[in-house]
TrEMBL record:
BP terms from Gene Ontology: cellular response to virus
Organism this protein belongs to: Pycnonotus jocosus
Keyword Electron transport: no
Domain VWFC: 1-53, 53-114, 111-172, 178-238
Protein name from the UniProt record: VWCE protein
């Protein structure tokens, strides 16, 4: 699409296609999404994967921590937590109940929660002792706590890092390559090393990112009878002439192999 890509590069195309450059070819595949919740919201604008920050229940989007009754009523109360919808059918004890309900259900006030010396109203969300990695909610006198969901990481275990005050691990940047390793012959070249891979007309250099860049030499000088020197890329037109399998120096005369009455001379021009 008019954009050069380095070997091994990864990027995302429109339509949630994950692409990579391998051996001069572009390989694309549909991104796979791991959704660790039961009622995820559709992917936001410009995104590819559904999100568990909120819930989609019966076609209605619910914010994180929302307490609601489903469309069929029946005095059932549901709560949205980390993309999961949990529903309870309240019983109506005297003086308190799980949630405010219509007159034909329970005529009562929702029960508050007493938790570690604090009182929380029904539906209140709070952190556990200042730990932002744990979220609690008061539901009809009961406190339910859950860990903050962490995103899936695409790096190996030894590159993951949990920083101070962080709830979820992140991927460390991979170490900078020390050189270029060639699998075909097991030779490792340092960054900046220039070598020929066997063809004298091709030179390769080890790049700083560990990749190998190669380029062929174009021979500009041409003549009809050049001398070809082993191990040298371009033929030599200034050293003499090669004629019928023999090499002659400049200004040397010799009989023609095709007609003994003809005399030939090697002229370097």
């Amino acid at each position: 699409r008019g954009i050069p890509r380095e070997p091994g590069a990864h990027w995302t195309e429109l339509g949630c296609q994950s692409c990579t450059c391998q051996g001069g070819r572009v390989l694309c595949d549909t991104m796979s999404c791991s959704v660790p919740c039961s009622h995820p919201l559709p992917a936001p604008a410009g995104g590819c994967c559904p999100t568990c920050t909120g819930c989609l229940h019966e076609g209605v989007a619910r914010a994180e921590g929302d307490v609601f009754s489903p469309s069929d009523g029946n005095c059932t109360v549901c709560v949205c937590l980390a993309g999961n919808v949990s529903c309870l059918s309240p019983e109506c004890p005297p003086g308190s109940c799980l949630s405010p309900s219509p007159a034909d259900c329970c005529s009562c006030n929702p029960e508050k929660c007493n938790f570690r010396g604090h009182t929380y109203a029904h539906g209140a969300r709070f952190s556990l002792d200042g730990d932002d990695c744990t979220t609690c909610v008061c539901q009809g006198g009961e406190v339910e706590c859950s860990f903050t969901p962490c995103p899936m990481l695409d790096c190996p275990q030894h590159q993951r890092h949990l920083g101070p005050g962080q709830c979820c691990s992140t991927c460390r940047d991979p170490p900078a390559p020390a050189g270029c390793f060639l699998d075909d012959n097991g030779v490792e070249f340092p960054v900046g090393q220039i070598w020929s891979p066997g063809d004298p007309c091709e030179l390769c250099i080890c790049q700083a990112d560990g990749s190998v860049s190669c380029q062929r030499t174009d021979c500009v000088e041409t003549c009809p009878y050049p001398i070809r020197i082993p191990g040298q890329c371009c033929p030599d037109c200034s050293a003499g002439c090669t004629y019928m399998g023999r090499t002659f120096s400049n200004n040397e005369t010799f009989p023609s192999a095709l007609d003994p009455c003809l005399s030939c001379i090697c002229l370097v021009r």
